[in-house]
Amino acid sequence: MVIAAEHAVAAAPARAHHAYDAWLALAHARAPVRMAVVHPCDAEALEAALAARQQRLIEPILVGPPARIAAAAKQSGVDLDGIEIVPSAHSHASAETAVALVRAGRAAALIKGSLHSDELLHAVLDKQTGLRTERRLSHVFVLEVPTYPRPLLITDAAVNIYPTLADKRDIAQNAIDLAHAIGIAAPRVAILSATETVNPQIHSTIDAAALCKMAERGQIHGARLDGPLAFDNAISPEAARIKGIHSGVAGVADILLVPDLEAGNMLVKQLTFLANADAAGIVLGARVPIAFASRADSLRNRLASVALCAVLAHARLAAEAALHP
């Protein structure tokens, strides 16, 4: 068993990071984005924010209890000189304060720190003081998988537990908009299920068929959709060929729209832990993008999430400027 494990490690493919470097280049080509870092009260969250500042991706505003932020800085050995700190009493207050900074025009994006996802999303979704839009919030993982020839977007694996058909329409459109922002001009969306045929007993296949028809009618735009597709024939041209699937999406998908959070979460973790994929996470559908790193993420993956957030923030600001010259 030891020999087999050692062989598996030796045979693992090297990580290329081509997509990661491209996202950083996109972000570096523009001015640093002012972002509110929500409750950066542990070493990992604070180090990521300051590393992003050092790379000129962002100008951070740290929102949280000053004493706890100072303790995290001491633990990390980092310097807070010249960095704005907006005090708050606790994590709930940090989320509310950060959202207020966005509403006041002082921040163009949010970065999740060391607070629970629900705490931040509760403040973002508040009907009176939050950052709601007509879109449903959704999460996208952008992965660089060493064995796949292009970036792979997986949605939604973190926010919507059992999305409805209407939810999936927004989830798809949010991911398509992100794909455009990172340079995928004509993304291909595979709507996943356990099978590639419509089966009334498998609800996700019905949703997939409906989403494809919605795309034909212009209710989802900017991409080519196909589904239902099983995972193998979504990402493997050979699997699609063997099963006789003739599609512009099958085997070459850019975006995987999963049936529910459980399926998506397991898929992402399998790719990261078994296929050595790098993953950046971002929440879309609010007035500003939200960098949404996992507690287990490496510094590199946290920076990738912030870089994606910066690219999207610039795209949003450019769109607003075009509407109001």
Topology (elements, then pairings):
Blueprint: H1 2-11, H2 18-28, E1 33-38, H3 43-54, E2 58-64, H4 66-76, E3 84-87, H5 91-103, E4 109-112, H6 117-124, E5 138-144, E6 152-155, H7 165-181, E7 188-192, H8 203-216, E8 224-229, H9 231-235, H10 237-242, E9 255-257, H11 261-274, E10 278-284, E11 290-291, H12 299-323
Parallel strand pairs: 1-2, 1-4, 2-3, 4-11, 6-9, 7-8, 7-9
Antiparallel strand pairs: 5-6, 5-10, 10-11
Structure description:
The structure is a single chain. The chain is of the alpha/beta class. The protein folds into 2 domains: 1-30 and 135-285, 3-Layer(aba) Sandwich (Isopropylmalate Dehydrogenase); 32-132, Rossmann fold (3-Layer(aba) Sandwich), CATH 3.40.50.10950. The protein is 45% helix and 17% strand. The protein has 12 helices and 11 strands. It has helices at 2-11, 18-28, 43-54, 66-76, 91-103, 117-124, 165-181, 203-216, 231-235, 237-242, 261-274, 299-323, and strands at 33-38, 58-64, 84-87, 109-112, 138-144, 152-155, 188-192, 224-229, 255-257, 278-284, 290-291. An 11-stranded mixed beta sheet has the order 3-2-1-4-11-10-5-6-9-7-8, with helices on both faces. Helix 8 (203-216) links the parallel strand 7 (188-192) and strand 8 (224-229). It starts with a helix and ends with a helix.
From the structure above, extract its key features:
Rossmann fold, 11 strands, Isopropylmalate Dehydrogenase, alpha/beta, single chain, 325 residues, disordered N terminus, globular
